[in-house]
Fold:
Amino acid sequence: MENGGRAVAFKVRQRNTPAFPGVTANAQAMTHSFSIDQLDPYLVPPKDHRHRLFHGRGKTLPGWEGLTLDRFPPVLMATLFDDYDAATLDALEQRLRAVLPELDCDTLVFQHRHRRPALTRVITGAVPEPHWAHEGGLRYRLDFERGQNLGFFADMAPGRSWLRERAAGKKVLNLFSFTCAFSLAALAGGAESVVNIDLSAPALALGRENQVANGFADARVHYLPHNIFRSWKKLHSLGRYDLIVVDPPSAQRGSFMVEKDYPKVLERLSKLLAPEAELLVCLNAPWLGRDWIEARVAERLPGAVLEAVLPGAPGFDEAAEPALKVLHYRYRRPD
Structure:
């Protein structure tokens, strides 16, 4: 906001001084001075089909590291990872309200991800029900009441495009499938069959809804609400796979911890892959570099050769190595 023609600077209150009860404490004590006007270049209609307008998590704009802005017309969503003070929140709300018409939106949603559990608030307007994210001629159901995830990850757009381009006639396995967005991309690309496996039955149900809503009701798709580590025989019984997507959570208490469990997944894949196959290996852990996952693949999956590192999705600008690493491997079974 402006005051007498001058930009007002704000400070972010870190998580060790919460504005809401239930906020997890954070040992950081740093504060940054910054201006709401710094966001203006991002608050314009995109010239492409991106959903992410501003990616503060990429640390390209000091002071706004705790904010992301996503556009799913008619909804503009601000996700707050830091406990910004009341003056900052008020100024941010006013600025975002003002640009709604220009962004072809009429609804503003704030999600306070710094709270435990996350708090989602509709600031103005109303979220359509159902509401969808659109990408590449497909639509993906959004669930604003799910909690901290909407059921659709915009940062994985290059991965979905990659899969769609090479899925024709292939048997696809989607590990840690969540709401099965990869499955939908594979079907759009002409996949012969898809197997989705995830612990969350509600997430898989949303994936099935997406399948039907996009005209693939009769496609050969399996939805397995199982623990992957107890389901290797079941996965093997459904066939050898030409394409496997591995996109696990980085840390999910009681079910998956990336440093301990990712190597276990990789060493099992040779029994699931066709003699010649491709993989999309994904890692979303800011504390682990790309070299970590490359080393684990080299150790645990002989015959896998790195073909390419996929680019980041539009809008997900990063000042350093991105948190999300997406690697394309080609596999040939060793003699």
In short: The two ends are 66 Å apart (CA to CA). The longest strand covers residues 273-284. Residues 154-332 form a domain with the Rossmann fold fold (CATH 3.40.50.150).
